[in-house]
Here is the input.
Amino acid sequence: MRTSGPLTDYANYAVSASATRLRPLSPNEILTYAQFLYRTHGLEILKRSITPSIYLYAAVVFILTFVIPRSGENQFGRGTQDQVLEFLIVMILGLLVSIPLITIGLSMICTLTTELARRWLHNSPIDWPEIDIATQSMFWEGWKALTYAMFTAFRWVVLGLLVTAGAGLTSVWLGPSSVVPGIIAIIGVIAVLAAIGVCIFELTRVIFIVPIYLIEGITGKASVARSRHLVKPSKFADTGSPIGTGFTTFILVSIILYIGYGTFEGLFQLSDRASQMVSVPLIQVMIRAGVALLPGLLAVLTTLPYFAMIIAIAYFERRARKEGYDIELLIQQMSRRRR
Here is the structure.
């Protein structure tokens, strides 16, 4: 029996094309894909997102209870230069503690959603034990990708902090009566604020770095350049990105949870009752902050996997739109049918 030829090949192409899910998609279609996967596998996704959400939650609690309150305090000196040095120490400590927690949590979620999106878009079976094995083996690659992305983005913040540190050093050399350290301190604060804006912009450009590490095996500077290439708008009927919509969803869900939980907390005073269970003041403060930030944990747990799913699907869509990756898959499927 003949298994190849124009008609047979066209029939195989038609069957494969109708079965494939990957093609150039509109933003609404990407959101629909992500919502479908979230609804279909939501329980499995949420079970595997609890631990990474706690890592991210711990980073948020540390930033809000330690970094932000102490960044404006001056406990060990009275001069401007002393304030600058304390601010620098607090910010560096905040970065050293929070960034590892954030990258670990995000790596666990991003590797999970990337593998799930890859299997579904490639029409592979969704086998959760196999997905668990795959995500565990890919965790460190995802962590390295996110760490490199954080370095790429936050280097501007570090540069601003180094300028701020110059104020403290010059105060030792020139003395407290000199106006130069104060000028450098002001420049340093402006540099940090400007660097935060640049940092956010850089993060949007390296948003595909985890799938690039995991799927293509591209690392280092090449992965950053690759992500920037995929993020750049395509000249082939590019209709925009759904990532902004996913982020807006995260913000809206957070607001709803905070309002609802704030009402519940006001009625039952949960933070006061929980803090009265211990006598150590620092632990009481952390408990109060933890209870108050519980809506944030719920928001991270329920919406971050959805947001990560959007990014994973958008990565494959960008490759299909800009590089014909969907045609590549069709050719592979057709070649398997001809054998």
Remarks:
- Residues 9-18 have pLDDT under 50 and may be disordered.
- Residues 32-338 form one domain.
